């Protein structure tokens, strides 16, 4: 039994623990694991590395992915999918474990349903926006990084009597902005799920200033929109293989509005890729390891077309097709709880 494994899309703390867990499980069952380098690009071109207990045992504390990653989309060209199938046959792969987000898992799902490739999915994204799983690994590390950054930003905001706007990742879902904002006692939080109310935000900040608070913290998700019919605020017009634009810039716009309407010096800090870099947290190391073990077990049991997922405290398997295509947006109840701190006392 030879199992292929790849990591696609943006890197994420916890990927290496997943690899380690799956490799140990498959080798314990008498199988081999070939790592496909740089996501679907490696699957197409046949760039591989033999994954063993020895070369994966010490990677649990490493951020990123030892396999490399890319945003290559095999379905961008029909002939590329054919080449991928040929590579699988040449490598004699019995199955493939794809570790990634909606785009990576979407490709895995199509390969299973349309071309009969034996794929297994493992959900990965710091955005925590994948369906069919309660939590994705990488999210815990990310919100702790953002929380620590805001704690540091707060000291300079207070010293200079400024309002600071912190822009976080989160294209379609505001999990990172909301959780890190709550953990950091932010004065206001803006997320993609709710239309931005600029006047309400400014009134809240002005009221706190009047009450004696000498600084302010606003956390905004990169995917937040200024109106229901608005498009994303983007860095440029470029798009990747999956049709995604590069987001960024809404934090600067929000800071400019606050400074003009509230009359207080306001600065923006965009955290960017720092949110998904560095060592995974203990929670993500354990979750990643558990997901990897169960993905390996699916490969050993030849249960294909499935994705491993966290439900409560248990790892389960769900149909891969059910897990892609629909974003898991921020629970309105959580945002309602956060907004308790944005209200004016009666």
Describe the structure.
This protein is α/β, with parallel strands linked by helices and 346 residues long. The protein folds into two domains: 2-137 and 280-323, Rossmann fold, CATH 3.40.50; 140-276, Phosphofructokinase domain (Rossmann fold), CATH 3.40.50.460. Helices cover 40% and strands 19% of the residues. The chain contains twelve helices and 13 strands. The protein has helices at 15-28, 40-45, 53-56, 78-91, 102-115, 139-160, 175-183, 198-210, 250-262, 282-301, 320-323, 332-338; strands spanning 2-7, 32-36, 48-51, 95-100, 119-123, 163-168, 188-190, 216-221, 234-239, 245-247, 266-270, 306-311, 314-319. The strands form three sheets. It has a seven-stranded mixed beta sheet, sandwiched between helices. It has a four-stranded parallel beta sheet with strand order 7-8-6-11, with helices on both faces. A two-stranded antiparallel ribbon has the order 9-10. Helix 1 packs parallel to helix 10, helix 6 (139-160) crosses helix 7 (175-183) and helix 8 packs across helix 9. The longest helix has 22 residues, at 139-160. The chain is elongated, with a radius of gyration of 22 Å.
